[in-house]
Amino acid sequence: MNLAFFDAKPYDKPSFDAFAAENGITIKYFETKLNEDTAELAHGFDAVCVFVNDTVNAAVIDRLCELGVRAVALRCAGFNNVDMKHAFGRIHVLRVPAYSPYAVAEHAMALLLTSIRRIHKAFIRTRDYNFSLAGMTGFDLHGKTVGVIGTGRIGRVFMDICRGFGMKILAYDKYPVPGLDNGDTIRYVELDELFANSDILSLHCPLTEDTYHIINEETLASCKRGVVVINTSRGALVDAEALLAAIKSRKVGAACLDVYEEESDFFFEDYSGHILDDDTLARLISMPNVIVTSHQAFLTEEALTNIAATTIRNLLELFETGECPNELCHRGGDTQDCKTGKCFG
Ligand code: NAD
Prior knowledge:
The protein is α/β, with parallel strands linked by helices. It is 32% helix and 17% strand. It has helices at residues 13-22, 58-66, 84-87, 101-116, 119-127, 153-164, 191-197, 217-221, 240-248, 279-286, 301-321; strands spanning 2-5, 26-29, 47-50, 71-74, 92-94, 145-149, 168-172, 186-188, 200-203, 227-231, 252-257, 290-292, 328-331, 334-337. The strands form 3 sheets. Strands 8-7-6-9-10-11-12 form a 7-stranded parallel β-sheet, sandwiched between helices. A 5-stranded parallel β-sheet has the order 2-1-3-4-5, with helices on one face. β13 (328-331) and β14 form a beta hairpin. The protein is globular and about 60 Å long. It starts with a strand and ends in an 8-residue tail after the last strand. The structure holds nicotinamide-adenine-dinucleotide (NAD). Nicotinamide-adenine-dinucleotide binds next to α4 and α6.
């Protein structure tokens, strides 16, 4: 099997090379992202492997089909960059539903602690032998309330971590997990109650039509003054302009962003030495109470190994049996993992 691997980074190769070699798969790595202009590169390949910022829209899907490509293997969980309605019945779409919820949840907590204990400031100060504590006052997490939107794999690990800190959790999910609400330290509530009573908000839901800009001018206005916003999920869950305005007005006390609405133009690339064209991103980064990481929450050795192993297994299963449980289906407006093994059925 031949695999065209788009948006390849040096850290992708060791784990993918190892699993591909074991299973007789040939991989050609392309540094470029997949989009309408680069789809041509997939000529002669059985499948393409893509990541979060590759574009798999209707035009790309049509071109891949014309080129004889049979599958799009996402090496990630989220699939908001794939036109699933258009893909259904035309090309197989596989994903890695879980690779390390710990990687992302632990990164969310790392961002939170860095931000509220001013570790990013301290690191720079002490390197310059500046041992002043002025402006470094933080706050205890113990006893604070965190609003967790999305109580799936990552959200639940994040909740466990928060409970270790003695925090209370207000949770919201479109599909609440039975038995998770203990009526005390974890309570499922409606979104308005969550926004009104949380000291910290952490987003762990997928990007869908329902969740697009779930953090916006109106919801931010309903939050506590000084609320800390953490987004390690998908950029467009947050209206970045509204967030910036709320930071300027001091409504938002801090923001921890591993993802950004327009990240595909910048994230994963080195733009040092360039003038950043995105004023909103530049202004956010300039804020002392904003921490931006460039979609690195997933980036642990464990996650990379699991991503490569599952992606290769997905492709082998599909090509050998015609079925793969990690195939995404789009039926009746809802996208879900394949339950039938007959996604083209
Ligand atoms: P998951 O599918 O296990 O959990 C998602 C949860 O969101 C589910 O419980 C689901 O019911 C809930 N949900 C769906 N629609 C909702 C809505 N409208 N409102 C509230 N909740 C809703 O997924 P996961 O593995 O926990 O991943 C969560 C998200 O994290 C992914 O969708 C992805 O966008 C993001 N992610 C980011 C990184 C990173 O590196 N930053 C890595 C992996 C995943």
